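User: My notes are a mess, but here's the protein and zinc ion's SMILES. Can you give me a structure?
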Amino acid sequence: MWAKGFPHRDINFRGGLGGSTVRLTNEQTGEAIEEMSLEIAYREAFSGAIYRTQDSDGQMVTYHSLSLDVEARQATLQPIPETSTYTVAESRTDTRILQDLVAPKQLKLNLSEEAKEGNAFLRLSWGEVSHSISGYQVLVKEYEQTCLNRKCVNYREALPGRKFCPVCGRRSRRAELTKVVDEVEFEQPYAIRFTTPITQISFDKTVNEYLQKCASGLLKGVESDSAIAGVLRDYPASLLGVHSFGHQILAAFPLVVLGSLNDVNYIVEARNSKDCVGYFYDLSESGNGSAEAIFRHLSKLARAGAALARNCDCQYGCPKCLILSGCPDGNQALLKQMGLLLCDAIASIC
Ligand SMILES: [Zn+2]
Ligand SMILES: [Zn+2]
Ligand SMILES: [Zn+2]
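Assistant: No problem, the inputs look usable. Here's the predicted complex:
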C-alpha cells in the first residue's frame, strides 16, 4: 500500500481501540513526557494527580496534572518542585471470565524443601475487564516523632514535640508517617470497560499452605519491628505470594516475549484470605497477544523473573524487579521472597 504523508502515525500499532494511548505533555515546554494506556492514565494522570517519572537523563521529575482530556487522549502536566505529597487514585478493577479460549492447564509443581507436590491451574479465557476511578487521596509522607509500639493506639500517630508516648509511656521515635491531607471525589467517575483475553492463575490448598509456612518462617527470621515484619503480618501469605509472583512475571515480560508493559497488566482477587487468584489481562480491546504469551511461556517467564529478582541487589523488592508503575493494587502487599517461591515452583516445570 502507498499513501502520502505519515499515515502510520494514525494507526494504533497495538491494535484494538484506535488511539487508546494517552500522551502526557509538559505544559511549559509543550514537549511529550511519555505515553501510557488509558487505563493507567485514569489512575495516574487524572486532573489533580501528582505524577513522578524519570526524565531522559534518568533524573526523577515531579509533575502536577492540570487536566486529562479523554477525548483528545491528552493529559497536560505542570512541572513542580520535588515534594513529599503524593496522590493515590480510588480505583476498582474487576475481571469477568466469559469463555475459555483453549483447554485449561494443570501444572504440577515441586515445592522445594517439601517432598510435596502442589498444583497450579492456568486458564486462558475471553473476558471483560472494567475499571472505575471515583476520586483520589492526597497524602503526605513526613518524618515525625511517633510511638512505634504496635499495640498502642498511638502507633504511627504523629506526636510532635513529645519525648514519650502519652498513652503507653514508651520513648517516641522518629519515623516516616503517611498522612491523608485531602480526599477528592470526582463528579463523574472515570470508567472503562473492554473485552480481551485474560490468563488466570490459581493454586491448590497444598501450595497455599506452603506459602503460609514459608511466610511464618520468614517472619521468624526478621526483626519484629522491621518494615518487612509489618508486611508479613498485615497481608495474607497467599496474597503476598500470588501478587509478587505476577509482578515478577511482568518484570520479565519485555525480556522474554519482546512485549511492552503498556500492553498487559495484572490484578489479584481473593477468593478468601487463604486463596488468591491472579489475572493477567491485555490492555487493549480485543487483545494484543500478551495474556496468551504468558499462558504459553509461563515457566520461561518464571525462570527469567526469578533470575531478575535474585540478581537484583535489593533486599525485599524494588522498582527494577518488583514494583510496577501501573499496579491496580497500588503496589501494596508485595514481597520479593514470597513471589520467588512461586516463580521457582513454576520455573521447575518444563
Ligand atoms: Zn504508645
Ligand atoms: Zn530489586
Ligand atoms: Zn500489583
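Residues 243, 247, 266, 327, 329 surround zinc ion (ligand 3) (CB under 6 Å).
User: Great, I'll file this with my notes.
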